[in-house]
Amino acid sequence: MARRNPLRQPWRRLGLVGLVSGGQTGVDRAVLDLALEAGIPCGGWCPKGRWAEDGPLDERYPLHETPLVRVVQRTLWNMRDSDATLVLAQRRPRGGSAILAAQAGINRPRLVVDPGATGSPRRVAAWLCRHQVRLLNVGGPRASEDAEIYDLARDFLVRLLLAPVSGPR
Q1: Are 67 and 48 in contact (CB under 8 A)?
Q2: What backbone torsions phi and psi does residue 123 show, to the nearest 5 degrees?
Q3: For residue 112, what is the DSSP state?
Q4: CATH code of the domain in which 110 resides
Q5: Which stretches of 59-133 are DSSP H helices?
Q6: Tens of pLDDT along 28-66?
Q7: What confidence category does residue 147 fall into, taking pLDDT thresholds of 50, 70 and 90?
Q8: Which of 8, 37, 38, 35 is nearest to 22 (CA)?
């Protein structure tokens, strides 16, 4: 008998229809890897040439290229095309993450969370419900800025998907 993946359905009870991320190392890659593993629809924008700090992005990541190589365009377009933005960072974000935190877009909720903090998954689950987020953009530092962030972000997302949901959905 095939073993059932416990992450296959919980994202739906959060009201999510998908995740958006830009494919950079670190948080972005953790989001996409987990989404693909759990069967969560995912996508987003990446810089022209599928650029990431570790080389061109693997084609398995369902991302569209922006016309420019500049990561700012990718970041802003992912924010624009989603209902809300979640930034996962242990320290004050900078670079693309700073853009995410500072320019979350007009009429787009945003939340910056330390993925290692106790209670963060429940807080984010409540935030998703309160703002009726369906398509969530998730970003944060790249691996060269925080060597632990991939694992922290992935673990956080698993805890989020399994967190109790309070409030109407």
Answers
A1: yes
A2: -60, -45
A3: E
A4: 3.40.50.450
A5: 71-80, 96-102, 120-130
A6: 999 999 999 989 999 999 999 999 999 999 999 999 999
A7: very high
A8: 35
How many domains does the chain fold into? 1
Spatial contact of 17 and 11, defined as CB atoms under 8 Å apart: no
**Which residues constitute the domain of residue 100?**
15-54+67-162
Distance CA 138, CA 83 (A): 11
16, 58, 85, 164 from 62: Cα distances, Å: 18, 9, 19, 29
25 pLDDT above the threshold of 60: yes
Residue 124 belongs to some domain of the structure: yes
Neighbouring residues of 104: CB distance < 8 A, sequence distance ≥ 6:
79, 85, 110
Q: CA-CA distance, 12 to 98, in Å (whole number)?
A: 29
Q: In 3-state terms, what secondary structure has residue 159? A: helix
Torsion of CA 63, 69, 70, 71, to 10 degrees: 30
Residues 81 and 86: their CA atoms lie apart, in Å, by: 13
Nearest to 96 by CA among 157, 31, 28: 28
Q: Quick check: is 112 in a domain?
A: yes
What's the angle, vertex CA 92, arms to CA 128 and CA 79, rounded to 5? Answer: 45
**What average pLDDT does this structure show over 109-131?**
92
